[in-house]
Amino acid sequence: MAHRSLYRPLFVLGLVACCAAYAAAQDTPRAHPLTNLPPAGEISTGYFFPGYPTRQFIAGEPVKVVLGVRNEASENYNISMIMGSLNNAQEFRAYYWNFTQQLYFQIVEPSKELSVEYTFLPPKDLPPNDYQVALTVFYEAADGFKSTTFFNQTITVLEKGQLIDWKLIFLYAIFIGLVFAGAYFAWSAVKESPIYKNVVGKRTRKVEVSRAYNDDEWVKGTPYDNFRKKKAAAANKGSPKKGQ
Ligand SMILES: *[C@@H]1O[C@H](CO)[C@@H](O)[C@H](O)[C@H]1NC(C)=O
Ligand SMILES: *[C@@H]1O[C@H](CO)[C@@H](O)[C@H](O)[C@H]1NC(C)=O
Ligand SMILES: *[C@@H]1O[C@H](CO)[C@@H](O)[C@H](O)[C@H]1NC(C)=O
């Protein structure tokens, strides 16, 4: 117990020093901020991955996460930074990668909300697999640093090209649809055009006449049959005239 009470202030000092070192972007700090997280403050969080709703990330492609923070405390919080790590999905203690921290230093007042964006990069040569990603936001109150791990879940990392790109498939479908619609309208326009009628129309008329001759039995004896015969006779009379 005596150890702990001694250790706490030292730790906070260490974290401050460590953040200062990060801010200055110089030496590697002695204690990594993710090794021993500060206690949680009173915030509620929400997040979403705009580009990856299914949380299937692609090795070598940056992943953006939007974090919404709501300050539920009665004091201001200074949102300092977000950091994250990529861990073994079965054994969280085995970490593979620490994502670069991003600094914000933005104040969120009591009962107010703030959203920040954090981008991390699953390493390019990461073997496709399930991993556990933990993302932690650090913020500072009057009594020191606090942290909240707002995302700590299993995700899938895929190789580039492995992901079924529904957006792209959808675009292809629309494109093919448009091509067919275009072809149909073009065909309709051509069909109605005088040139097409001149070229193909005569042939079509001939086909119609010959079909009239070979009509089925069922019209025999009906008024239509008579009409048809007359029409055929007229066509027969007409044809030789044309030839002369
Ligand atoms: C990554 O984070 C872990 C804590 O989760 C820490 O122990 C380790 O030193 C960090 N590694 C690097 C290279 O910063
Ligand atoms: C937030 O914290 C940073 C780092 O401690 C500090 O430099 C900055 O002035 C703080 N912002 C406000 C408005 O207090
Ligand atoms: C993330 O969840 C694992 C269990 O799945 C747990 O062991 C680990 O401590 C959590 N990490 C953080 C930073 O909360």
Automatic annotation (TrEMBL):
UniProtKB keywords: Calcium, Endoplasmic reticulum, Membrane, Signal, Transmembrane, Transmembrane helix
Keyword Membrane recorded: yes
Name listed for the protein in its UniProt record: Translocon-associated protein subunit alpha
Function: TRAP proteins are part of a complex whose function is to bind calcium to the ER membrane and thereby regulate the retention of ER resident proteins. May be involved in the recycling of the translocation apparatus after completion of the translocation process or may function as a membrane-bound chaperone facilitating folding of translocated proteins.
InterPro entries reported in the protein's UniProt record: TRAP_alpha
Lineage: Eukaryota, Viridiplantae, Chlorophyta, core chlorophytes, Chlorophyceae
Membrane-topology descriptor: Single-pass type I membrane protein
Protein family membership: Belongs to the TRAP-alpha family.
GO cellular component: endoplasmic reticulum membrane
Quaternary structure (record): Heterotetramer of TRAP-alpha, TRAP-beta, TRAP-delta and TRAP-gamma.
Pfam family, one: TRAP_alpha
Domain of life: Eukaryota
Subcellular location: Endoplasmic reticulum membrane
Keyword Cytoplasm: no
Domain comment in the entry: Shows a remarkable charge distribution with the N-terminus being highly negatively charged, and the cytoplasmic C-terminus positively charged.
Signal peptide from the UniProt entry: 1-25
Transmembrane parts of this sequence: 169-187
Main location: endoplasmic reticulum
